[in-house]
Amino acid sequence: MEENNASSTITNLPDDCLIDIFARLDHTDLDEISTISGRLYELAEVSRSRSKVGSLKARRLLIAQINREEIVFEMSFAGQYYQLKLTDPDSGLFEKLPDNESALYYALVGYLPREIIEMNIQTMFVSLFDRATVLLRRFDFEELKICSIWIDIHFLSFFHQFLSTRTVASFNLRYAEFKYDLRDQFISVLLAANFESIDLQLEHNYLVNEEFMKDYANSVILPALFVSIQCHDRPFRPSSAFLKNLSKFGTLSYSNLLIGAEMLLPALIVRLRQRRKGAWRFLVTRDIDQAEIDAALEADLEFNELHAERRRSIRIANTPSMVKFRTHVQFITMPMLQFSAHFD
Question: What is this structure's pTM?
Answer without folding.
Answer: 0.78
